[in-house]
Design goal:
Blueprint (H helix, E strand, L loop, with lengths): L7 H22 L6 H14 L3 E5 L2 H11 L7 E5 L5 H8 L3 E5 L21 E4 L11 H11 L4 E3 L20 E5 L13 E5 L2 H10 L21 H10 L3 H21 L38 E4 L3 H10 L29 H9 E4 L7 H15 L2
Parallel strand pairs: 2-3, 2-4, 5-6
Antiparallel strand pairs: 1-7, 6-7, 8-9
The chain binds pyridoxal-5'-phosphate.
Length: 388
Amino acid sequence: MKVPLLDLKLQYQSIKNEVEPAMLKVAESQMLILGEEVDKLEKTIASYLKTDFAVAVSSGTDSLLMALMAIDLKPGDEVIIPTYSFFATAGVVARLGAIPIFVDSEPVTMNIDTNQIKEKVNSKTKAIIPVHLYGQCAEMDELLKISNEYKIPIIEDCAQAIGAQYKDGRFAGSFGLMGCFSFYPTKNLGAFGEGGIITTNNKELADKLKQMRNHGMNPKYYHKFIGGNFRLDALQAAVLNVKFPHLEIWHQRRRENAQLYSELFIKAGLSESEGKINFDDKNKVLLPKAVYQNSDCKNYHIYNQYIIRVHERDKLREFLGKNDIGTEIYYPVPFHRQECFAYLNNNDHDFPIANELSETSIALPIFPELTKEQIQYVVEKIKEFLSR
Ligand SMILES: *Cc1c(COP(=O)(O)O)cnc(C)c1O
């Protein structure tokens, strides 16, 4: 049996009949940049996430960069971010000459540890960027408290969390000053190329972002500030508009796959329960825990990734690879250990949880079209490895 980490061809087959005419329509129109399809996408996403505005842009990375440009982040300013995330979260801060201030992770959700934020706040702090990692919301109550107390805006990195709900039912991207999303093909809602979107309830910001994505131009060839080419293609928007109505069922299948993994791992004696933190036993795995699962919301976790933790991670990965099971390491190097951030002189001992995560976490296949048999095979092979 073969189990790829992700097989986008299967999803394509299931929507081919809808998506091809939509793409052809854009081709026939030759209206290729922004336009009707992009307007429609913005309305759809704003209404889905219950925000007043959504501004479609060129990528998730650019959405974060634009959000920081929109708050006029200056060289020397500081932005608080988790040290354990995809590189874009840190890269955008440094690209603007600002200083990324790293915070360790909370061990169960693997999101930013909100208990360690206050001690890093000072007069230079201009924003906090929590990441809703793998598709589960960061601890927003705590983050909003800090944001209100110190008057520091929150910019949410929702790249992996479109549709993810917090325990009160509110959606990722509707808490902070802005929410930044990616339509990279591997995200739960993926384009046929690059894309992103920024949500906000602030009209002034929405207008500014729309101008910013077009070089800060308004009216034509007059520039009051410097933006960039951050526009979304009509083709990408057309694909996303076709895909959007399928998103809920894809979320649901990912959740069901995650539940099946958990059941099977527990049944196989490889874990006692989800999120059990102490896994001293070298032959056990640590399962992800959806911490908002018991609240009313449906999408308490959208499982963009299904991450388990295991001691001999690299050997397990090699073993699974030999058995045709695709896996990935998200992420092998936390920001404080990246060569490009050596100039920040962070102390490795300050980030024990992120260090542990980078050494033990492994992503298993979780995509919606995965079969029960494939999931059973993955768990069987992991059991085989751990009992060898
Ligand atoms: C994917 C991702 C991004 C960047 O999105 P792109 O569309 O690839 O630029 C940013 N942050 C996180 C956490 C991501 O997973």
